[in-house]
Predict the 3D structure of the following.
Amino acid sequence: MPTPTDLNRWQISDGRLLGDEIAIVRGYCQALVGMGVPLARVRVAQQYSNPILSA
């Protein structure tokens, strides 16, 4: 069973080299499930700045 430290190492080594966002999220979720975290679904979101509001 992976540990949180293993997951951190994966994120900064192999995980970041995957290059595909879906593969990165899939690998992260698989590691969490492997640690016993009961995931039913995952939502990925990104905050962005509205150029009209920040001008």
In short: The radius of gyration is 15 Å. The CA atoms of residues 30 and 39 lie 9 Å apart. Residues 21-34 form the longest helix (14 residues). The chain is about 50% helix and 0% strand.
